[in-house]
Design brief:
By secondary structure, the protein is mainly beta. Helices cover about 15% and strands about 45% of the residues. The protein has helices at about 1-20, 220-230, 270-290, and strands at about 25-35, 45-55, 60-70, 75-80, 95-110, 110-125, 130, 135-140, 150, 150-160, 165-170, 175-180, 185-195, 200-215, 220, 240-245, 250, 255-260, 295-300, 305-310, 320-325, 330-340, 340-345, 355-360, 365-370. The strands form 6 sheets. Strands 10, 11, 13, 14, 16, 17 and 18 form a 7-stranded mixed β-sheet that branches. Strands 3, 4, 6, 7 and 8 form a 5-stranded antiparallel β-sheet that branches. A hairpin with a 4-residue loop joins β6 and β7 (about 130). The longest helix is centred in the last third of the chain and has 22 residues, at about 270-290. The protein is elongated, with a radius of gyration of 31 Å. The N and C termini lie far apart (about 70 Å).
Amino acid sequence: MRKTILTTLFTVLFFALMQKTNAQIIVSSKLYLSQSASSYPDTKTIHLKVTAFVHTFQSGKFYLSPQRREKGKTTWSWFVPNVTHFPNTGYSATPSATYSGTGKTTQLEGTEYEYRVRITFVSASDGTKTIYTPIKSIKSGGPKPCFTMYNVQSTHNEPSKYGPQEVKTICSTAVTINGSCSTFESGYHVRVAEFDLNTWSFKKDYYDNWVGPGEAPSFISLNALAAQNGEYFKPGKLYLVRLSIGPVWKSSPLQFFRVVTCFSGKNQKEDKLDEVNETLSEEIEAHKTLNLESLKLYPNPVTNYLKIARAQPSINENLPLDIRVIDVNGAEVYKKVFTSSNFEVDVSNWEAGLYVCEIKLGDKVITKKIIKK
């Protein structure tokens, strides 16, 4: 009889302690990460999924807060996914429950971040337990050379030493490429040359050099580059073009092209002069009206204040600059018109990540990337 009483008393005390002590709230968790292409240039969408299992004799509620930091850094930053925040589960009558939440954010190409989620379980009475999921990391992309060709009249295959190769046909006066799809470059190099597909060898270089520092622009005239060496593209010959980027040297796939004369009534010499003069004139006009290209945005990445300065002297120094900044979701975060040569934009309250600065001068518009730390 005495043994039965003691056993009953021990059982009552055990369950009473289980109800009162926070130590009995045991939470286990897992964090899953995956990435996919984003609809916005130079970013990846990072998908986060969290599962948590709680052991307790008390009903309660989950709170989940995602964090991330750049690989190698020590400070974590809070962020809210681009979809509804991980929701709270609400109090449950079930002593133990499993919760699964999902969310997503975006990460700049060429970066590596570590992620974790803080999970807090608050009981219906007075018990609270906070843990962090194990740290997971995502490395997204890197420097990538890329270009497309403008003014393609047609495309066909031609035999070569290594099998059929795609060859484009382009008007001789407008051989231009668009290198803006390249990522994380600090300079760009162009090689354009006469090429022999049968022997797979270079016959003559028209241009083989760095074109400029910074990002590869959306307009690179191969006519103007060739003209610097006294060359011009001739119908009947086959050419190769390749875009490379630095500082870590990477080259894009080769592209081949032939040119055709897209106007008539003039001899070859006149064609040559018209072609070179027209191209150079277009380049000069582009620099006059697109003085935007020489705008300086610094520091970039930026923490507090982004400085924007016009090149001096500026042909367009009296025209107002219309500045508009959008985030990775396409939402406008800043808009203002400036008439001064130098000015600052306060970005201290912006979320860390990638932004695009759209700058309009007269009827010309360019875009520049901004990275907020």
